[in-house]
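G., the chain you wanted modeled:
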Amino acid sequence: MTGQSGAPGRRDLLVVYLNDHLAGATAGTELARRAAAAQRDPAKRGIMRGLAGEISEDRQALLEIMAAIGIPVRGYKVWAGWLAEKAGRLKLNGSLLARSALSDLLELEMMRLGVEGKAAGWHTLRTLAASRPELDAARLDRLLARAEDQSKRLEGLRAEAAAEIFLA
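Predicted structure as tokens:
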């Protein structure tokens, strides 16, 4: 629905906004799974697998929230998020065909940025919950708390990876 000026209406903007977050969640889920599988340290692999599971659950929560408020999923954006994660593997990291020493660090930084973006989306939805009874404020509070915890865990792993690369 466009507004009187021909500009997109609020609902149209929310459709775009949440589908953009869904594309990011799709890319983030793929990245988290790949990073966990590639982790050589068993203890860190376990932490990463846990994070990957939570990130996947958060993507599902976003889909459920979108359905609850009647926001259609734009499949092409989901596909674009999936493709973007695959294309991100082609970055120049000092090693053309294999993982480089920088791979873990860069992936952890990308994951942390994704989690921060996800938290911003949860904050936006939390604000909307005051006027949209179909949005569960308590659930959004839990999702926000989990995103904050994920960010802290990722920062710990990121700091360790940076120290191993640059200070060892």
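The chain is about 75% helix and 0% strand.

Shout if anything looks off.
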